[in-house]
């Protein structure tokens, strides 16, 4: 069975490797990722994973396609994948000293076109960040392109005082849910 990962994330590739899985191909999805008006964060994450999988499956007939999406949410607000230091600073200021949710949705579309979906929601709390801690993290550049302006698998992990849920989901791919989807889709995984 041919497995296609619909993501260009090196982190997702690494996480799949933790399951002993190496995709046969990596084909990033090219879709519009703009949230809809008043779209809730968990709904948005699920829609993005489903649309990414469907987009890639259309060009990969006969393959099992796996896609995921991570959304960092402060209340009902969807935080961006930060592209500028100012954007990252704004996210970190918002998250400093408070809890937020990280929704990670996964979709698998099997060879016959059957779509299966899972959603993992984790709660993350940062310590109250001092100006020095904020500046040091921003100077690292680790925030670039990361949902909510941080990467939990890097320096930001030392700033997290609480994590309830799946560490791998906050990184970008919930391993428990992914394994279940692959098995349900007939993929040979232990």
What can be said about this structure in brief?
With 190 residues, this protein is an alpha/beta fold.
Q: Which helices and strands appear, and what pairs or packs with what?
A:
Blueprint: E1 3-5, H1 10-18, E2 25-26, H2 41-59, E3 64-74, E4 77-78, H3 85-95, E5 99-109, E6 115-126, H4 131-140, E7 160-164, H5 167-171, H6 175-184
Parallel strand pairs: 1-2, 1-3
Antiparallel strand pairs: 3-4, 3-5, 5-6, 6-7
What would you note in describing this structure?
This protein has 190 residues and is α/β, with parallel strands linked by helices. The chain has one domain: Maf protein (Alpha-Beta Complex). 34% of the residues lie in helices and 24% in strands. It is built from six helices and seven strands. Strands 1, 2, 3, 4, 5, 6 and 7 form a seven-stranded mixed beta sheet that branches. A hairpin with a 5-residue loop joins strand 5 and strand 6. The two termini are 15 Å apart.
List descriptors.
190 residues; alpha/beta; Maf protein; 6 helices; 34% helix
Overall structural class, as computed from helix and strand content, comes to alpha/beta
Tell me, what is the CATH class? Alpha Beta
CATH architecture label = Alpha-Beta Complex
- Calculate Rg over CA atoms: 17 Å
Can you summarize the main beta sheet?
A: 7 strands, mixed
Please give the oligomerization state of what you see.
single chain
**Residue fraction in strands:** 15-25%
Record field, number of beta strands: 7
- The ordered H/E elements are EHEHEEHEEHEHH
* Helix share bin: 25-40%
Distance between the termini: 15 Å
Q: List low-pLDDT spans.
A: none
User: Helix segment count?
Assistant: 6
